[in-house]
Write a structure and sequence with these properties.
It is built from 15 helices and no strands. By secondary structure, it is mostly helical.
Protein backbone atom coordinates (compact mmCIF):
# COMPACT_ATOMS: atom_id res chain seq x y z
CA UNK A 1 0.00 0.00 0.00
CA UNK A 2 1.38 3.41 -0.97
CA UNK A 3 1.76 6.28 1.47
CA UNK A 4 0.09 8.37 -1.23
CA UNK A 5 -3.05 6.19 -1.11
CA UNK A 6 -4.52 8.38 1.61
CA UNK A 7 -8.07 7.10 1.11
CA UNK A 8 -7.03 3.67 2.40
CA UNK A 9 -6.59 5.13 5.88
CA UNK A 10 -9.01 6.86 8.22
CA UNK A 11 -12.80 6.93 8.35
CA UNK A 12 -14.66 5.90 5.18
CA UNK A 13 -17.57 8.10 6.25
CA UNK A 14 -15.16 11.01 6.65
CA UNK A 15 -13.62 10.41 3.22
CA UNK A 16 -17.05 10.35 1.60
CA UNK A 17 -17.85 13.72 3.14
CA UNK A 18 -14.50 15.40 2.42
CA UNK A 19 -14.39 14.10 -1.16
CA UNK A 20 -18.02 14.90 -1.99
CA UNK A 21 -18.53 18.37 -0.50
CA UNK A 22 -15.92 20.13 -2.67
CA UNK A 23 -17.25 18.34 -5.73
CA UNK A 24 -20.76 19.64 -5.06
CA UNK A 25 -19.41 23.16 -5.43
CA UNK A 26 -17.38 22.24 -8.51
CA UNK A 27 -20.26 20.45 -10.27
CA UNK A 28 -22.66 23.33 -9.54
CA UNK A 29 -20.13 25.82 -10.90
CA UNK A 30 -19.70 23.91 -14.15
CA UNK A 31 -23.46 23.47 -14.59
CA UNK A 32 -23.97 27.18 -14.12
CA UNK A 33 -21.91 27.90 -17.25
CA UNK A 34 -24.72 26.68 -19.51
CA UNK A 35 -27.29 28.82 -17.71
CA UNK A 36 -25.15 31.95 -17.94
CA UNK A 37 -24.39 31.29 -21.63
CA UNK A 38 -28.10 30.78 -22.39
CA UNK A 39 -29.06 34.02 -20.63
CA UNK A 40 -26.68 36.25 -22.59
CA UNK A 41 -27.09 34.42 -25.92
CA UNK A 42 -30.86 34.78 -25.46
CA UNK A 43 -30.37 38.54 -25.62
CA UNK A 44 -29.08 38.17 -29.20
CA UNK A 45 -32.47 37.01 -30.47
CA UNK A 46 -34.45 33.91 -31.34
CA UNK A 47 -32.09 32.75 -34.11
CA UNK A 48 -29.18 32.62 -31.67
CA UNK A 49 -31.28 30.64 -29.20
CA UNK A 50 -32.26 28.22 -31.95
CA UNK A 51 -28.60 27.81 -32.89
CA UNK A 52 -27.72 26.94 -29.30
CA UNK A 53 -30.44 24.27 -29.37
CA UNK A 54 -28.56 22.54 -32.18
CA UNK A 55 -25.16 23.06 -30.56
CA UNK A 56 -26.13 21.69 -27.12
CA UNK A 57 -26.45 17.95 -27.95
CA UNK A 58 -23.17 17.98 -29.90
CA UNK A 59 -21.29 19.73 -27.10
CA UNK A 60 -22.73 17.26 -24.56
CA UNK A 61 -21.72 14.32 -26.75
CA UNK A 62 -18.10 15.36 -27.18
CA UNK A 63 -17.83 16.46 -23.53
CA UNK A 64 -18.77 12.87 -22.66
CA UNK A 65 -15.47 11.89 -24.27
CA UNK A 66 -13.66 14.10 -21.75
CA UNK A 67 -15.63 12.70 -18.83
CA UNK A 68 -14.82 9.17 -19.99
CA UNK A 69 -11.12 9.97 -20.24
CA UNK A 70 -11.14 11.51 -16.76
CA UNK A 71 -12.85 8.42 -15.33
CA UNK A 72 -10.36 6.11 -17.05
CA UNK A 73 -7.34 8.00 -15.72
CA UNK A 74 -8.90 8.18 -12.24
CA UNK A 75 -9.46 4.41 -12.26
CA UNK A 76 -5.94 3.32 -13.22
CA UNK A 77 -4.26 5.78 -10.85
CA UNK A 78 -6.43 4.98 -7.82
CA UNK A 79 -5.87 1.24 -8.19
CA UNK A 80 -2.12 1.61 -8.77
CA UNK A 81 -1.77 3.75 -5.64
CA UNK A 82 -3.83 1.27 -3.64
CA UNK A 83 -1.57 -1.55 -4.83
CA UNK A 84 1.46 0.44 -3.65
CA UNK A 85 2.88 1.03 -7.14
CA UNK A 86 3.58 4.76 -7.09
CA UNK A 87 5.87 4.54 -10.13
CA UNK A 88 3.16 2.98 -12.31
CA UNK A 89 0.66 5.56 -11.04
CA UNK A 90 3.03 8.42 -11.96
CA UNK A 91 3.75 7.01 -15.42
CA UNK A 92 0.07 6.57 -16.17
CA UNK A 93 -0.75 10.01 -14.79
CA UNK A 94 1.62 11.69 -17.23
CA UNK A 95 0.62 9.46 -20.12
CA UNK A 96 -3.08 9.98 -19.36
CA UNK A 97 -2.78 13.77 -19.62
CA UNK A 98 -0.98 13.49 -22.98
CA UNK A 99 -3.53 10.96 -24.25
CA UNK A 100 -6.41 13.24 -23.25
CA UNK A 101 -4.92 16.23 -25.11
CA UNK A 102 -4.19 14.10 -28.18
CA UNK A 103 -7.79 12.86 -28.19
CA UNK A 104 -8.91 16.50 -27.94
CA UNK A 105 -6.81 17.49 -30.96
CA UNK A 106 -8.22 14.63 -33.07
CA UNK A 107 -11.87 15.12 -32.07
CA UNK A 108 -11.65 18.92 -32.26
CA UNK A 109 -10.09 18.71 -35.72
CA UNK A 110 -12.76 16.31 -37.00
CA UNK A 111 -15.51 18.50 -35.56
CA UNK A 112 -14.04 21.59 -37.26
CA UNK A 113 -13.91 19.82 -40.64
CA UNK A 114 -17.36 18.24 -40.42
CA UNK A 115 -19.36 21.16 -39.00
CA UNK A 116 -21.47 21.94 -42.06
CA UNK A 117 -22.44 18.37 -43.01
CA UNK A 118 -23.10 17.50 -39.37
CA UNK A 119 -25.48 20.37 -38.66
CA UNK A 120 -27.06 20.14 -42.11
CA UNK A 121 -27.87 16.53 -41.27
CA UNK A 122 -29.49 17.82 -38.07
CA UNK A 123 -31.63 20.07 -40.33
CA UNK A 124 -30.27 23.41 -39.19
CA UNK A 125 -31.63 26.12 -41.47
CA UNK A 126 -29.49 28.37 -43.70
CA UNK A 127 -30.18 31.22 -41.23
CA UNK A 128 -28.90 29.18 -38.29
CA UNK A 129 -25.84 27.61 -39.91
CA UNK A 130 -23.68 30.80 -39.94
CA UNK A 131 -24.43 31.35 -36.23
CA UNK A 132 -23.63 27.73 -35.44
CA UNK A 133 -20.41 27.93 -37.45
CA UNK A 134 -19.34 31.15 -35.72
CA UNK A 135 -19.57 29.41 -32.33
CA UNK A 136 -18.42 25.89 -33.16
CA UNK A 137 -15.29 26.73 -35.16
CA UNK A 138 -13.44 28.39 -32.25
CA UNK A 139 -15.01 25.86 -29.83
CA UNK A 140 -13.56 22.97 -31.85
CA UNK A 141 -10.11 24.54 -32.01
CA UNK A 142 -10.12 25.12 -28.25
CA UNK A 143 -11.42 21.65 -27.40
CA UNK A 144 -7.95 20.22 -26.55
CA UNK A 145 -7.84 22.67 -23.61
CA UNK A 146 -11.01 21.13 -22.16
CA UNK A 147 -9.54 17.66 -22.60
CA UNK A 148 -6.38 18.78 -20.79
CA UNK A 149 -8.53 19.85 -17.83
CA UNK A 150 -10.30 16.48 -17.83
CA UNK A 151 -6.99 14.63 -17.96
CA UNK A 152 -5.48 16.57 -15.06
CA UNK A 153 -8.68 16.30 -13.02
CA UNK A 154 -8.55 12.53 -13.54
CA UNK A 155 -5.04 12.52 -12.06
CA UNK A 156 -6.17 14.60 -9.09
CA UNK A 157 -9.29 12.52 -8.45
CA UNK A 158 -7.30 9.30 -8.48
CA UNK A 159 -5.18 10.71 -5.67
CA UNK A 160 -8.24 11.76 -3.65
CA UNK A 161 -7.68 15.48 -4.29
CA UNK A 162 -11.35 16.46 -4.60
CA UNK A 163 -10.75 19.97 -3.29
CA UNK A 164 -8.20 20.67 -6.02
CA UNK A 165 -10.50 19.43 -8.79
CA UNK A 166 -13.22 21.75 -7.51
CA UNK A 167 -10.84 24.71 -7.54
CA UNK A 168 -10.11 23.96 -11.21
CA UNK A 169 -13.83 23.81 -12.05
CA UNK A 170 -14.60 27.02 -10.19
CA UNK A 171 -11.70 28.85 -11.88
CA UNK A 172 -12.89 28.29 -15.43
CA UNK A 173 -16.56 28.70 -14.52
CA UNK A 174 -15.85 32.04 -12.84
CA UNK A 175 -13.89 33.22 -15.87
CA UNK A 176 -16.89 32.36 -18.03
CA UNK A 177 -19.27 34.26 -15.74
CA UNK A 178 -17.16 37.40 -16.00
CA UNK A 179 -16.39 37.20 -19.72
CA UNK A 180 -19.84 36.27 -21.07
CA UNK A 181 -21.47 39.71 -20.72
CA UNK A 182 -18.34 41.42 -22.06
CA UNK A 183 -17.66 39.16 -25.06
CA UNK A 184 -21.26 38.29 -26.05
CA UNK A 185 -23.41 41.41 -25.61
CA UNK A 186 -20.69 43.93 -24.77
CA UNK A 187 -19.91 46.02 -21.71
CA UNK A 188 -17.74 48.95 -20.59
CA UNK A 189 -17.88 50.49 -24.08
CA UNK A 190 -16.95 47.24 -25.82
CA UNK A 191 -19.55 46.09 -28.35
CA UNK A 192 -19.05 42.35 -27.93
CA UNK A 193 -18.71 39.64 -30.57
CA UNK A 194 -22.20 38.20 -30.38
CA UNK A 195 -22.41 34.44 -30.83
CA UNK A 196 -18.64 33.87 -31.23
CA UNK A 197 -18.12 35.72 -27.94
CA UNK A 198 -19.67 32.81 -26.04
CA UNK A 199 -17.09 30.46 -27.56
CA UNK A 200 -14.24 32.90 -26.83
CA UNK A 201 -15.34 33.15 -23.20
CA UNK A 202 -15.41 29.36 -22.94
CA UNK A 203 -11.95 28.95 -24.48
CA UNK A 204 -10.38 31.63 -22.27
CA UNK A 205 -12.02 29.98 -19.27
CA UNK A 206 -10.55 26.62 -20.30
CA UNK A 207 -7.10 28.17 -20.70
CA UNK A 208 -7.32 29.63 -17.20
CA UNK A 209 -8.54 26.26 -15.93
CA UNK A 210 -5.54 24.48 -17.50
CA UNK A 211 -3.15 26.95 -15.85
CA UNK A 212 -4.76 26.48 -12.44
CA UNK A 213 -4.86 22.69 -12.89
CA UNK A 214 -1.15 22.50 -13.78
CA UNK A 215 -0.27 24.63 -10.77
CA UNK A 216 -2.33 22.44 -8.45
CA UNK A 217 -1.23 19.08 -9.85
CA UNK A 218 2.42 20.00 -9.28
CA UNK A 219 1.56 20.32 -5.59
CA UNK A 220 -0.02 16.87 -5.43
CA UNK A 221 1.80 13.63 -4.60
CA UNK A 222 2.39 12.28 -8.12
CA UNK A 223 5.10 14.07 -10.13
CA UNK A 224 4.12 15.60 -13.45
CA UNK A 225 7.20 15.03 -15.56
CA UNK A 226 6.91 14.14 -19.24
CA UNK A 227 10.31 12.42 -19.05
CA UNK A 228 8.43 9.56 -17.38
CA UNK A 229 6.78 8.87 -20.74
CA UNK A 230 10.05 7.24 -21.86
CA UNK A 231 9.52 4.57 -19.20
CA UNK A 232 5.86 4.07 -20.11
CA UNK A 233 4.55 1.06 -22.03
CA UNK A 234 2.32 3.02 -24.39
CA UNK A 235 0.23 0.08 -25.58
CA UNK A 236 -0.37 -1.24 -22.05
CA UNK A 237 -1.16 2.18 -20.58
CA UNK A 238 -3.46 3.10 -23.48
CA UNK A 239 -5.36 -0.16 -23.13
CA UNK A 240 -5.70 0.24 -19.34
CA UNK A 241 -7.13 3.77 -19.63
CA UNK A 242 -9.28 3.23 -22.71
CA UNK A 243 -10.74 -0.01 -21.31
CA UNK A 244 -12.54 2.23 -18.82
CA UNK A 245 -12.66 5.52 -20.73
CA UNK A 246 -14.46 4.15 -23.82
CA UNK A 247 -17.43 2.55 -22.05
CA UNK A 248 -17.57 5.43 -19.53
CA UNK A 249 -17.80 7.98 -22.36
CA UNK A 250 -20.63 6.00 -24.00
CA UNK A 251 -22.37 5.58 -20.65
CA UNK A 252 -22.26 9.34 -20.05
CA UNK A 253 -23.66 10.08 -23.50
CA UNK A 254 -26.61 7.68 -23.19
CA UNK A 255 -28.61 9.77 -20.73
CA UNK A 256 -28.57 13.00 -22.84
CA UNK A 257 -29.58 10.94 -25.89
CA UNK A 258 -32.46 9.40 -23.95
CA UNK A 259 -33.63 12.75 -22.64
CA UNK A 260 -33.52 14.21 -26.16
CA UNK A 261 -35.83 11.46 -27.42
CA UNK A 262 -38.05 11.89 -24.35
CA UNK A 263 -38.26 15.62 -25.12
CA UNK A 264 -39.35 14.82 -28.67
CA UNK A 265 -42.08 12.52 -27.37
CA UNK A 266 -43.31 15.20 -24.97
CA UNK A 267 -43.17 17.85 -27.72
CA UNK A 268 -45.59 15.73 -29.77
CA UNK A 269 -48.13 16.13 -26.95
CA UNK A 270 -48.21 19.91 -26.55
CA UNK A 271 -46.06 23.03 -26.45
CA UNK A 272 -47.02 23.58 -22.79
CA UNK A 273 -45.83 20.09 -21.91
CA UNK A 274 -42.41 20.52 -23.45
CA UNK A 275 -42.03 23.99 -21.89
CA UNK A 276 -42.97 22.68 -18.44
CA UNK A 277 -40.71 19.63 -18.85
CA UNK A 278 -37.77 21.79 -19.91
CA UNK A 279 -38.18 24.27 -17.07
CA UNK A 280 -38.60 21.52 -14.47
CA UNK A 281 -35.49 19.86 -15.89
CA UNK A 282 -33.45 22.92 -14.91
CA UNK A 283 -34.63 22.61 -11.31
CA UNK A 284 -33.91 18.89 -11.42
CA UNK A 285 -30.39 19.42 -12.76
CA UNK A 286 -29.47 21.33 -9.60
CA UNK A 287 -31.43 19.04 -7.29
CA UNK A 288 -29.25 16.07 -8.28
CA UNK A 289 -25.92 17.92 -7.94
CA UNK A 290 -25.03 16.17 -4.62
CA UNK A 291 -25.68 12.80 -6.29
CA UNK A 292 -23.48 13.72 -9.26
CA UNK A 293 -20.75 14.88 -6.88
CA UNK A 294 -20.92 11.64 -4.89
CA UNK A 295 -20.67 9.62 -8.10
CA UNK A 296 -17.43 11.47 -8.86
CA UNK A 297 -16.05 11.05 -5.35
CA UNK A 298 -16.74 7.32 -4.97
CA UNK A 299 -14.24 6.26 -7.64
CA UNK A 300 -11.09 7.33 -5.81
CA UNK A 301 -12.25 5.82 -2.51
CA UNK A 302 -13.31 2.46 -3.95
CA UNK A 303 -10.38 2.27 -6.40
CA UNK A 304 -7.65 2.92 -3.82
CA UNK A 305 -9.12 0.53 -1.23
CA UNK A 306 -9.79 -2.23 -3.74
CA UNK A 307 -6.23 -1.93 -5.07
CA UNK A 308 -4.94 -2.18 -1.49
CA UNK A 309 -7.10 -5.30 -0.95
CA UNK A 310 -9.10 -3.41 1.68
CA UNK A 311 -12.27 -4.93 0.27
CA UNK A 312 -14.34 -4.31 3.39
CA UNK A 313 -13.58 -0.58 3.27
CA UNK A 314 -14.53 -0.44 -0.43
CA UNK A 315 -17.85 -2.17 0.27
CA UNK A 316 -18.51 0.12 3.23
CA UNK A 317 -18.01 3.15 1.00
CA UNK A 318 -20.49 1.84 -1.56
CA UNK A 319 -23.02 0.88 1.13
CA UNK A 320 -22.91 4.29 2.82
CA UNK A 321 -23.07 6.08 -0.54
CA UNK A 322 -26.11 4.02 -1.53
CA UNK A 323 -27.87 4.85 1.74
CA UNK A 324 -27.21 8.54 1.17
CA UNK A 325 -28.66 8.32 -2.36
CA UNK A 326 -31.85 6.74 -1.09
CA UNK A 327 -32.28 9.14 1.84
CA UNK A 328 -31.40 12.29 -0.09
CA UNK A 329 -33.47 11.21 -3.08
CA UNK A 330 -36.61 10.62 -1.04
CA UNK A 331 -36.32 13.87 0.95
CA UNK A 332 -35.68 15.91 -2.20
CA UNK A 333 -38.58 14.21 -3.98
CA UNK A 334 -40.91 15.10 -1.13
CA UNK A 335 -39.80 18.75 -1.16
CA UNK A 336 -40.08 19.14 -4.94
CA UNK A 337 -43.43 17.35 -5.10
CA UNK A 338 -44.81 19.67 -2.45
CA UNK A 339 -43.13 22.83 -3.76
CA UNK A 340 -43.61 22.24 -7.50
CA UNK A 341 -46.24 24.96 -8.03
CA UNK A 342 -44.11 27.46 -6.11
CA UNK A 343 -41.03 26.73 -8.25
CA UNK A 344 -43.14 26.84 -11.42
CA UNK A 345 -44.09 30.48 -10.78
CA UNK A 346 -40.42 31.48 -11.19
CA UNK A 347 -40.35 30.19 -14.78
CA UNK A 348 -43.75 30.99 -16.27
CA UNK A 349 -47.11 32.63 -15.67
CA UNK A 350 -48.86 30.26 -18.11
CA UNK A 351 -51.21 27.98 -16.13
CA UNK A 352 -50.77 25.06 -18.55
CA UNK A 353 -46.97 25.25 -18.43
CA UNK A 354 -47.05 25.47 -14.63
CA UNK A 355 -49.39 22.47 -14.43
CA UNK A 356 -47.00 20.35 -16.53
CA UNK A 357 -44.01 21.62 -14.52
CA UNK A 358 -45.65 20.51 -11.27
CA UNK A 359 -46.87 17.24 -12.75
CA UNK A 360 -43.36 16.31 -13.89
CA UNK A 361 -41.79 16.96 -10.48
CA UNK A 362 -44.65 15.25 -8.66
CA UNK A 363 -44.02 12.06 -10.65
CA UNK A 364 -40.38 11.93 -11.78
CA UNK A 365 -38.76 13.27 -8.60
CA UNK A 366 -39.51 9.99 -6.80
CA UNK A 367 -36.94 8.34 -9.04
CA UNK A 368 -34.00 10.45 -7.79
CA UNK A 369 -33.04 7.77 -5.24
CA UNK A 370 -32.74 5.14 -7.97
CA UNK A 371 -30.88 7.52 -10.27
CA UNK A 372 -28.41 8.30 -7.48
CA UNK A 373 -27.73 4.60 -6.80
CA UNK A 374 -27.24 4.06 -10.55
CA UNK A 375 -24.65 6.79 -11.11
CA UNK A 376 -22.79 6.07 -7.85
CA UNK A 377 -22.65 2.37 -8.74
CA UNK A 378 -21.34 3.38 -12.18
CA UNK A 379 -18.59 5.40 -10.48
CA UNK A 380 -17.61 2.41 -8.34
CA UNK A 381 -17.70 -0.06 -11.24
CA UNK A 382 -15.55 2.24 -13.39
CA UNK A 383 -13.04 2.47 -10.55
CA UNK A 384 -12.87 -1.34 -10.43
CA UNK A 385 -12.23 -1.55 -14.17
CA UNK A 386 -15.75 -2.90 -14.79
CA UNK A 387 -16.84 -0.08 -17.10
CA UNK A 388 -18.72 -2.48 -19.38
CA UNK A 389 -21.06 -3.32 -16.48
CA UNK A 390 -21.73 0.40 -15.98
CA UNK A 391 -22.39 0.85 -19.70
CA UNK A 392 -24.76 -2.11 -19.74
CA UNK A 393 -26.96 -0.83 -16.93
CA UNK A 394 -27.06 2.70 -18.38
CA UNK A 395 -28.07 1.29 -21.76
CA UNK A 396 -30.78 -0.93 -20.28
CA UNK A 397 -32.23 1.91 -18.19
CA UNK A 398 -32.73 4.18 -21.21
CA UNK A 399 -33.33 1.86 -24.17
CA UNK A 400 -35.12 -1.06 -22.53
CA UNK A 401 -37.23 0.81 -19.97
CA UNK A 402 -37.53 4.59 -20.35
CA UNK A 403 -37.99 5.03 -24.09
CA UNK A 404 -40.19 1.96 -24.82
CA UNK A 405 -42.44 2.71 -21.85
CA UNK A 406 -42.69 6.39 -22.73
CA UNK A 407 -43.54 5.66 -26.35
CA UNK A 408 -46.13 2.98 -25.56
CA UNK A 409 -47.81 4.65 -22.59
CA UNK A 410 -48.19 8.19 -23.99
CA UNK A 411 -51.19 7.11 -26.09
CA UNK A 412 -53.09 6.24 -22.92
CA UNK A 413 -52.08 8.93 -20.42
CA UNK A 414 -50.27 11.68 -22.36
CA UNK A 415 -47.30 13.53 -20.84
CA UNK A 416 -47.86 12.05 -17.37
CA UNK A 417 -47.16 8.60 -18.79
CA UNK A 418 -43.85 9.81 -20.22
CA UNK A 419 -42.89 11.27 -16.85
CA UNK A 420 -43.82 7.93 -15.27
CA UNK A 421 -41.56 6.16 -17.78
CA UNK A 422 -38.61 8.21 -16.53
CA UNK A 423 -39.57 7.34 -12.95
CA UNK A 424 -39.76 3.62 -13.78
CA UNK A 425 -36.41 3.76 -15.60
CA UNK A 426 -34.66 5.37 -12.63
CA UNK A 427 -36.12 2.90 -10.13
CA UNK A 428 -35.30 -0.10 -12.33
CA UNK A 429 -31.84 1.32 -13.07
CA UNK A 430 -31.14 1.79 -9.37
CA UNK A 431 -32.17 -1.78 -8.56
CA UNK A 432 -30.10 -3.25 -11.40
CA UNK A 433 -27.10 -1.10 -10.47
CA UNK A 434 -27.30 -2.15 -6.83
CA UNK A 435 -27.41 -5.81 -7.84
CA UNK A 436 -24.49 -5.54 -10.30
CA UNK A 437 -22.19 -3.65 -7.95
CA UNK A 438 -23.03 -6.08 -5.12
CA UNK A 439 -22.22 -9.02 -7.40
CA UNK A 440 -18.86 -7.56 -8.44
CA UNK A 441 -17.81 -6.39 -4.96
CA UNK A 442 -18.76 -9.57 -3.08
CA UNK A 443 -15.79 -11.41 -4.65
CA UNK A 444 -12.71 -10.61 -2.54
CA UNK A 445 -10.26 -11.95 -5.10
CA UNK A 446 -11.42 -9.63 -7.88
CA UNK A 447 -9.01 -6.83 -8.81
Amino acid sequence: MSENAKLTRGSIRGHLVTQTLPMIIGVAAVMSIGLVDAYFIGQLGSDALAAISFIFPISVAITSLGVGMMVGINSVIARALGEGDDDRAARRANFGIVLAVLAGVIVGGLLFLLLDPLFTLMEASPRELPLIRSYMQPFALGFPLMMAIMGINGVLRGQGEARKTSIVSISYAAANWVLDPILITGAFGFEGFGMPGAAYATIIGWAIGVGVALWLVRRAALPINLVLLRQCNIAESSAAILRVAGPAALSNSINPVGLSVLTALIASESAAAVAGFGAAGRVQSFAVVPLLALSGAIGGIVGQNWGAKEYGRAREAMWLAGLFCVGYGLVTAALLSWGGPWFADFFSDDPQVNAEFSSYLRIAAWGYAGFGVLIVANGALNALGKANHALLQSFMRVFLVMLPLGWLARAFAGPAAIYAAELAANLAGGLLAGFLVWRVMRRPGHK
